[in-house]
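Thread: Newbie trying to understand structure tokens

Hi all, I'm a second-year student working on a class project, and my supervisor (Dr. K.) asked me to get a predicted structure for one chain before our next meeting. I've only ever worked with sequences, so writing a 3D structure as a token string is new to me. If someone could post the tokens and maybe explain what I'm looking at, I'd be very grateful. Here's the chain:
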Amino acid sequence: MKRKLKEELVKLSTDIITSRGLTEIPQLYESAKNLYEKLAVLKFIDEKLNDIEIDVSKNAIASKFEKMASAVMNENKSVPESNPHEEDIITPGIDTIKDMVSEMPGGSEINQFFAEFVAKTEVVKNDKEELTPEVELPSKETKAKSLNDTLSNKDIKVGLNDRLAFVKHLFNDSTEDFNRVISQLNTIDTEERSIAFIENMVRPDYNDWQGKDDYVNRFMGLIERRFA
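---
Reply by user tm_fold:
Sure, no problem. This is what the structure looks like when written as tokens:
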């Protein structure tokens, strides 16, 4: 569970780093919000559940799950009252935890419990306000998932000779650095962002790869082929 959350955090962080232009502010806001939610859950797991042996009985799972959800809700309450989007942060925290049900033993047995818990938390500050039913419409997220599914089957593949050359000439003989960059590139969903990530976040760490144009062109070709 922690590994999955950390992978999602890497992807969200990379998206935020490579986001450019005012036209992407809404997406940047959503990414930052999701990053906060997942960090809150990861922080709770690391501090509270790291040494706990999970009991697979229904009552034990429900109890731990309710504590986890309550902790995330309490974390979100720490947002300053002046924050105009506080309501946007609390509810998605529940969605983040819901995604983790599949990672827990006996997850199918607590679906009803989760539904009841969410129903209890879906309240408004002013009891005079009416709850408006939400209508699910096709969203950009659906399209994004489709694109991500496509790209997940096109992760960057590097041959042995190229790998050895890139590690030696571009990454100062650090296989760890090379693997980290490739892993991050595989989480980026556009060629433009991938190039921006390399130009702004990677090259400056290695003397801008001066005098190594041949290897640079071969390396950038990996990105081009991924989105071809």
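A couple of things are worth pointing out once you decode it. The first helix runs from residue 2 to 18. The chain has two domains: 2-134, 154-226. Feel free to ask follow-ups in this thread.
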